Amino acid sequence: MFDIKAIRENPEHFDGAWARRGMEPQSASLLAMDAELRTKQTELQECQSRRNDASKAIGMAKSKGEDASSAMREVGELKSKMGDLEEDVRTLTENLNSALSQIDNIPDADVPDGKSEDDNVEIRKWGDIPSFDFEPKQHFDLGEGLGQMDFEGAAKMSGARFVILRSDLAKLERALSGFMLDMHTNEFGYEEVSVPVLVRDQALYGTSQLPKFEEDLFKTTTDHYLIPTGEVPLTNLVSNSIVEENKLPLRFTCLSTCFRSEAGSAGRDTRGMIRQHQFEKVEMVQFVHPDSSWDALEELVGHAENILQKLDLPYRTVILCGGDLGFSAAKTYDIEVWLPSQGKYREISSCSNFTDFQARRMKARYRNIQGKPELLHTINGSGLAVGRTLLAVMENYQREDGSIDIPAILQPMMNGKTSIG
Known about the structure:
This protein has 2 domains: 4-101, Serine-tRNA synthetase, tRNA binding domain (Helix Hairpins); 117-420, 2-Layer Sandwich (BirA Bifunctional Protein, domain 2). It has 12 helices and 18 strands. The protein has helices at 4-9, 11-19, 27-63, 69-101, 139-146, 151-158, 167-187, 201-206, 231-235, 293-310, 357-362, 386-396; strands spanning 121-126, 149-150, 164-165, 191-192, 198-199, 218-219, 225-226, 241-244, 250-259, 278-288, 315-319, 331-339, 344-353, 364-367, 373-375, 377-385, 404-405, 419-420. It has an 8-stranded mixed beta sheet with strand order 1-11-12-13-16-10-9-4. The radius of gyration is 27 Å and the shape is elongated. The model has no long low-confidence stretch (mean pLDDT 95).
């Protein structure tokens, strides 16, 4: 979300930046709303000033025993007019804030131009793509062949896009979660947090899921929402607060169950674990000084990549073009892991710098050395999506007989077991 003052001072800059996202110019309509609001605010201030003067005149007239009826009539008229103006100001303020809350962040200058994911730019690859002397199976065929991945049973109780994991696959999912959390806390300096999976609308507004993306959320009958990502509760840890500058950066990580309706994904990834209504994800969030946020983004991307390197899973990292950026992001890197069955890379982590876009919505600030509160910058990324990491391990470590080797780094968490089969 933007401060309307910034748009007022440089509307061409904002319209040009939004155009890189494929958006129409927005500044004219926003500034028209802003102008109307400021006109009403000025009228209200003038009425308040005139009422104060008239109230003083009434007091003076009464102290002198003079007739104050004219001034009293004026005060009554002004009071009524002020009531109408206050309602106008309230409505216009709400309308302007609502419009601002639904307009995308502007891309950083480093973001490449483009209209869709086809225009994203690969910046590096890591790892050797495995070579099989047999036709590699998809993860759901492997899991069902082992009798440890049950989509049919899940559908009976919950419907489509759910799965039941059993035995060693369930344990492997747990091992992956623990491994990721241990890496982030022990190696990269994040504080582990256990978070709620039910939040109120204000938390989702702060991280920009509301109001624009409500259709992708699950809402309860108590007006709570199930979180679509651990980003929501982690980022809201500093909402409506001021952090001392010497405490920055703040780094948090969590394992959370996430819930998404997958609105608009009909017909896409209908089989398997790639696109589920419920899934586990390890999230990383950083709150940083504005001067260091771009370096922090590169560092956070490295943390996610390091997980894949430790698991010896081949991946590539791409920078998203302007037309493919998420709503709140100023710059995003997607990390995509290799899936042998599909013969291509698929997203496993998305890492973004939101600059002060989320912080302004949440009133998340730091106190600078002069003692003045300033907006923080927020950075986040998946570190990693656990289900997608599980299926990537299954496919890249599969054997011809349908068994699966366990990555060496996970074997201690699997009681020394070296394979599943």
